[in-house]
Amino acid sequence: MEDDALSAQAQAWLAEDPDPDTREELARLIETGDHAELTARFAGTLQFGTAGLRGELGAGPMRMNRSVVIRAAAGLAAYLKKHGTPHGNDTAGLVVIGYDARHKSRDFAEDTAAVMTGAGLRAAVLNRPLPTPILAYAIRHLGAVAGVEVTASHNPPRDNGYKVYLGDGSQIVPPADAEIAAEIAAVTSLTTVPRPTGGWETLDETVLDAYLARTDAVLAKGSPRTARTVYTAMHGVGKDVLLAAFERAGFPQPVLVTEQADPDPEFPTVAFPNPEEPGAMDLAFAKARETDPDLVIANDPDADRCAAAVKDGPTGTDWRMLRGDEVGALLAAHLVRRGARGTFAESIVSSSLLGRIAEKAGLPYEETLTGFKWIARVEGLRYGYEEALGYCVDPDGVRDKDGITAALLLTELASELKAEGRTLLDLLDDLAVEHGLHATDQLSVRVQDLGIIAAAMRRLRENPPTRLAGLRVISAEDLTEGTEKLPPTDGLRYTLDGARVVVRPSGTEPKLKCYLEVVVPVAEKPDLPAARAKAAALLARIKQDLSEAAGI
After folding, report:
1. Helix, strand or coil for residue 502?
2. Is residue 528 within 8 Å of 429, Cβ to Cβ?
3. What is the mean pLDDT of residues 435-445?
């Protein structure tokens, strides 16, 4: 972009920016003539899609800021009005707004409420930073036509985001995303967006109380409640709600990782506030070695995900994270044991073990595209999960992943096994003998240049592998074409003789993700060590071969 045009665009943006922080930032960039940074800020606009918006905080249309959020809210309001907003006796539809404890989250929530009110809709804002599942619950509980959650989930501290739900309590999917994006693009100036200084409702604790009362339905009446836990909120908003839910259920009070217990938008103890990232659980494991619990539980910062770790190894002091697929299978087995009925569902990147568990139990089973926006829409859903630590254990209450209720259900399972003198690892062994050892791994590449991801996908499409780890590729599917059951998506799926690989760009981070699974038959329990060694070797070779094939 030429300097004059770039300067004019930046000046026009500056003139409308309602936030003194980003105004000061942008004015400094203009004054110093920082062409490279201004070009990065004005190279386009943050794209609104099925993940809503997510990006780095800062001034300009390529960053998350109040100007971008006001435009997004105006586009959503226009979409809702076009599609008819009245609900029940309302003359104007209700939009519920929640937010986490990240930088600017409350500002973005209040800007959204102002835009909705100015558009003639009703707006209600949760009264404090709360887990995303509370917002998802509130939409259905209050009969809203839409909901907005301001969060960047487990992204780095410099990021924030904007997640949109419609009235069924699940996240948007096509074509709603494109229609909302078109309405956002039609907002030519912030001066055309009415934003009154008040007129919206601030919700009290009643919604949270109703959510907590709903958690009673997650657990079986009279089930054991003895498992002791260590808990980390990962500097997010999960602590108070999880502690209240555990107290209500009658579990022992979790031991807190105090350094990570309270909200802190800087996330000072972790490089990335994601339980899956290396080092993120170190403080929790240290606390576990001090206190010897039955289970370690972690939420991500907005508490819609749940991670778990168990004692492993001969010394009794070693702890290891359970993979999301392992927790997904454990919760499924627990629900089957309790007599759950309905459809079990997962995304295509999750372990095929869930399908085998459902088939053995005579339950319907569905695969969806990645994300709970798809899983939550499965007809007759009883339980859904995906490998990225997301679990929906009460779809009638929260039609999204919920790290609080998942933690309750997993702790109930640990308590039941404890009463039998067994552990979660023992149950995983049982599942491996019954259904085969399903071992999963991931090849994940974080990039600065998104062109690297595009080049890798192009290379795999032009020269698909015929063998990985010596295993023949039985079928190679380009998911951009869709399938009989799946809508089109940017992904590749390879079915091997005893293995499966899915490759896709992340929808929320600059990553290329490759999901690997091998299945090794197990005749009886003594065969498990050999089966695990074989699976680990196969996964390592698949990872290496796939990396070479993709050029990453």
Report:
1. strand
2. yes
3. 93
